[in-house]
Design brief:
D-Maltodextrin-Binding Protein, domain 2, alpha/beta, about 400 residues, 18 helices, about 45% helix, 2 domains
């Protein structure tokens, strides 16, 4: 019996496809246990520390460095088939499998870039033919939509204090040519002239002055914002590419056919970069079923026993993207799905894949501790309990303190 740990927002195809794999391999069995993504990190750390028998674990990108440094993940280098799997993946996805010392400790699992999702119908009614290219244009569009009575709070920034959130901020910072950290993971964002201050000032005004973002938006993670778009209660937000399948393809969507995805507006332009993510899945260091666990992990995240990427392909078709394997994206069935997701207009969607890059800073053991501190500081600034300058200074100081600890 292989003990498998996952977060609850797993692709819908995973369980049935794993069951088909088990049908072909009757000598194997899996006990699947999941937890909500927001509680997954703490639940897993508790199990690792308690030395709970574990075999296969999904690994959020922000946790891989720390879990590997704690020797909770088994190094995979040298295992049969690994090199071929990594060769088939994107550079971003491969980077998401590496520990701080360069060891491979997981396989690519989910990878995607964030874009700006917008209700084309609402935008058109407000008199705009295209989505905003920069934050000045975004302000004008959101204010016009509000003034026209089309939506009181048209823009969701989804800045809930929760692990792995604040995607809108990361995306906007990258679109503005900025970065939180340098290659050595030292803070850049408190330097004079860094774009983060201007972006946060814009956020503060969007919530408090222009009132185009709802006061309770800070209680939304991006998943809640995503659900809001699908239900028709949110019109504009920062979404991973795959979310377009939920909006325009899923039968329960109330926004079907209305949602498009554009490039992320930065301070000046929208074609510089955007944030992406690269989650992975690995073997627990304590597994006593290494061969069986590796065989199952390969089939789950890579090719099955016939050499075909069966489960990753099914996952891609189920999710509308999120694949770390470019060759699968060239599949005709995938092309048809992407076309449906984008209502025939795939230009910006395809560009996002090339613009996306993983967050810097996450390949440190201290990032998971710094992230909630940073989020709390920035939330205080958003509701004007502190200044943007003070929140930035405190967050940078905390990053430097943790790095030295």
């Amino acid at each position: 019996m292989l003990n498998f740990r996952a977060w609850e927002r797993y692709p819908a195809s995973d369980i049935p496809e794993l069951n088909r794999f088990l049908d072909r391999n009757p000598d194997l069995s899996i006990q699947w246990v999941s937890a909500p993504f927001g509680r997954y990190r703490d639940a897993m750390i508790a199990e690792f520390v308690a030395r709970t028998p574990l075999d296969i674990v999904q690994v959020p990108e922000t946790e891989l460095a720390g879990w590997a440094d704690s020797n909770w993940l088994m190094p995979l280098d040298g295992l049969p088939g690994l090199d071929g799997i990594l060769k088939a993946a994107t550079p971003t996805a491969v980077a998401g499998t590496k520990a701080l010392d360069g060891r491979t400790v997981a396989l690519p699992f989910l990878s995607d870039a964030f874009g700006f999702a917008y209700d084309h119908e609402v935008l058109t009614k407000a008199g705009f033919g295209k989505p905003a290219r920069n934050l000045d244009e975004l302000r004008l569009q959101m204010q016009a939509i509000k003034k026209a009575g089309l939506e009181e709070y048209p823009l969701s920034l989804a800045t809930k204090k929760q692990p792995g959130q604040f995607w809108s901020l990361w995306a906007t910072l990258y679109a503005s040519g900025g970065e939180f950290f340098d290659d050595a993971n030292a803070p850049l964002f408190d330097r004079p002239g860094h774009p983060l201050e201007a972006i946060l000032d814009w956020y503060v005004a969007a919530i408090n002055d222009w009132k185009v973002t709802a006061p309770d938006d800070m209680q939304r993670d991006w998943g809640a914002s995503r659900t809001g778009i699908r239900s028709g209660t949110v019109k504009f937000g920062y979404m991973a590419q795959y979310a377009l399948a939920e909006f325009n393809v899923w039968p329960d969507s109330k926004a079907a056919g209305k949602i498009r995805m554009g490039l992320v507006p930065g301070l000046e332009r929208n074609d510089v970069a955007t944030v992406g993510y690269a989650h992975s899945v690995g073997l627990a260091a304590t597994t006593k079923e290494k061969d069986a666990a590796w065989k199952t992990l390969r089939a789950y995240a890579g090719p099955d026993e016939t050499g075909v990427f069966t489960i990753p392909r099914a996952r891609l078709l189920s999710e509308g993207g999120r694949s770390p394997y470019p060759d699968l994206i060239a599949d005709p069935a995938v092309g048809e799905l992407v076309n449906r997701m984008n209502v025939g207009d795939t230009a910006d969607f395809n560009r996002l894949s090339k613009l996306g890059r993983q967050r810097k800073g996450i390949k440190t053991t201290w990032y998971p501790e710094w992230e909630p501190f940073m989020m709390a500081q920035f939330q205080e600034a958003l509701i004007k309990k502190t200044t943007v300058k003070a929140a930035i200074a405190a967050s940078a100081a905390e990053a430097r303190r943790l790095a030295k600890a």
